[in-house]
Here is the input.
Amino acid sequence: MLETIVALATPPIRSALAIIRFSGENCFEIVSHFFSKQINITKSTIMHGFVVDGDAKIDEVVLLAYKGPRSFTGEDSVEIICHGSPVIFNQIIELALKNGARLATGGEYTSRAFMNNKLDLIQAESINDLINAETKEAKNIALMSLDGSTSKLISPIKEDIGYLLSLIEVNIDYPEYEDLEEANIEKIKEITNKNIKYITSLIANGSKGRIIRDGINIAIVGKPNVGKSSILNALLNEDKAIVSSYKGTTRDVVEGKFVLNGILINLYDTAGIRESNDYVEGIGITKSIDKLNKADIVIAVFDSMDLDEEDKKILDLVKNKDVIIVYNKSDINDYNSDYIVTSAINKDVESLKQAILKKLNLNNENYINPSISSTRELGILKNIKEMMVKVLNDASNGVSIDLLSADIKDIYLSILSLTGEDHDFDIAKEIFSRFCVGK
Here is the structure.
């Protein structure tokens, strides 16, 4: 029997109301010790009463009791809605601990929901994404995972590979059944090739979904005094970075965030990159190069089309990055309109915003459709694709079906790991669920 756990479900601050959550097989019994009414229910219900410590009233509360498995965790659960004084909710938690509950660990409620098959692993991960979403678009992506829409993207792969694996095994284990469909090399190639294409599209869409969910990191680089800080301020629409005509004013990385078409942009204004004997400025330049290396996109800023040696060094530094080249100070320079030009001091950075959106290459479908976008999920998908490519190549090179079946089983196990299904599956159960062998 799992222990009853208790935790504050709302922030630990003074507020109008607070919610204390319990879950576990004996949570009704534990809460009954300090609630003014006995909790003896057969279905979910709402109760009004008092939390008491002996004869002393602690607070007047509303209690929501959920009978498992019809609860978030799949277990008997209780939520106490009390007044939001830290004194009150801490007293209630102390009473719970005194009567046999223990404090929940981080993520334990969601973990129990997963273990009790109320959520799959993709849904469980989406709860954290939902909580941490910084834009409504990121929230919508997380909601699609939470409602199971993202998990359904896995179903066609699981069905195809499960069918292929079962077909191979039934042909090997039950050769006497002549009416069974034959598992041959062409069938293996057909199914793996079909799914390689499908997974390729899932990875591409997932990478776009990840941008919507997590945002991107953009570093602004250039030599001193080209207007990097002014560009940051213009993009953020605030005076975040100090602007000065003196070289070396920015000596550390200045960070800011803004939302562009629903995408969170993490922006980094770096120290001017140049040769410097100044110790402090040198530290800033080192930090700038580190931030540049970690950026998804780099904005390289120049204030003239006649590039000097320092400018050329900047270009060489970013040659392997995804770069947007910007010519700033269009208010005092006559630039060719074919280039991305800005006048940051006049807040004219619209062409730069459009260049960022072009780099992101998102369309409306990326915002409204579910996608497999977490680092874990994309990593597993890429691994599955690699394994499928190996099976396809081996099948084309004459490797026997019985040897291929071992790799196909590994693929199937990896598919199950996406949603957190049981890896210790029974292949015989898979066979009989798909084929009426011997009726």
Remarks:
- The mean pLDDT is 87.
